[in-house]
Design a protein that fits this description.
Elements: H1 2-18, H2 22-48, H3 54-68, H4 71-78, H5 82-85, H6 88-111, E1 117-125, E2 131-139, E3 142-153, E4 158-165, E5 168-169, H7 170-185, H8 187-211, H9 217-237
Length: 238
C-alpha cells in the first residue's frame, strides 16, 4: 500500500511539473493574441490599401470580421441577463441577426478609412485568460486610429471578444444600448429592430448600386444576399 501511495504521488508530481505555470500560460496567450491580431490587421490594411471599390471592401471585411469575432460570446454579453430569459428559438434568431448587424456595421465603418500601415503598441493580460492587444492604424489624412482587441485563445483558435476604438468598448456600448432596449421594449422588439436595421442596410446598398450605374451589382449584393437568405430561413422557422 505504501508503494502504491508513493507511486501515485510520484505520478501526480510528474503531471504537475509537466503543466505550464500561470505565468507561462499568460505569456502563451499573449503571444497567440499578438500573432492573431497581426494576421488580421495585415489583411485589413492590405485590403484598405488596394484598388478595390468600397463595396468590395465591405464584403471582404464583413467575412474577415465574421471569422475573427467570437459572435456567440459578444451576442450573449451585450444583452446581459436577458439572454437567460429568452427562449431557445429567440436566441437562435437573435444570434443570427446580431452577427449580420455587427459584421456589416463595422465593415462599413472600416471600409471608408484610408490607411497606410499598422503597429502593435502593447499586449497585456486581462481577466479570464484573455489578452488585450493595442495598436495604431496609420492614416494619411489624420492622426492614427487607436484600436484595442480583447482576444480569447482556446485550444484550437483565437477569437476577438471585444474591440475598442479610441478607448470606447464596442461590447460595453452595445450592452448599454441593447440591454436597455430589451428592458424597455422586450426581446422580440429587439429582434424586430435588428431586422429593420438590416433591411435598411439592404436598401442602402441597392440604392448605392443604382447610383453607380449597376457596375458593382455582384459585389454589392454578395454580403447582403447572404444576410437576406439567413433572415428568410429564420422567418420560415417562426
Amino acid at each position: 500500500m505504501s508503494r502504491l501511495r508513493h507511486g501515485l504521488l510520484g505520478a501526480f508530481l510528474t503531471c504537475l511539473i509537466g503543466l505550464p505555470s500561470h505565468g507561462e500560460a499568460a505569456r502563451d496567450s499573449q503571444a497567440a493574441a499578438r500573432a492573431f491580431v497581426i494576421g488580421l490587421s495585415s489583411e485589413i490594411v492590405l485590403l484598405l490599401t488596394s484598388e478595390t471599390s468600397v463595396t468590395a471592401r465591405e464584403n471582404r471585411l464583413s467575412l474577415l470580421l465574421r471569422h475573427a469575432l467570437d459572435l456567440e460570446v459578444i451576442a450573449r454579453t451585450v444583452i446581459g441577463n436577458h439572454w437567460k430569459e429568452a427562449t431557445p428559438g429567440q436566441r437562435e434568431i437573435y444570434r443570427t441577426l446580431f452577427a449580420d448587424f455587427v459584421t456589416r456595421t463595422y465593415a462599413r465603418q472600416l471600409a471608408k478609412h484610408e490607411v497606410t500601415s499598422f503597429s502593435i503598441l502593447s499586449v497585456d493580460a486581462a481577466a479570464n485568460g484573455d489578452a488585450v492587444v493595442a495598436e495604431h492604424i496609420e492614416r494619411p489624412d489624420g492622426p492614427p486610429l487607436s484600436l484595442g482587441f480583447r482576444v480569447r485563445t482556446g485550444p484550437k483558435e483565437s477569437k476577438i471578444v471585444d474591440i475598442s476604438a479610441e478607448g470606447v468598448s464596442m461590447v460595453l456600448t452595445q450592452r448599454s444600448d441593447f440591454a436597455a432596449f430589451v428592458q424597455r421594449e422586450g426581446f422580440d422588439a429587439l429582434v424586430e429592430a435588428l431586422r429593420e436595421k438590416l433591411s435598411k442596410m439592404d436598401h442602402a446598398e441597392e440604392s448605392a448600386n443604382r447610383h453607380t450605374g449597376g457596375g458593382n451589382l455582384q459585389a454589392t449584393s454578395a454580403t447582403g444576399m447572404m444576410a437576406r437568405k439567413r433572415r428568410a430561413t429564420l422567418r420560415d422557422r417562426t
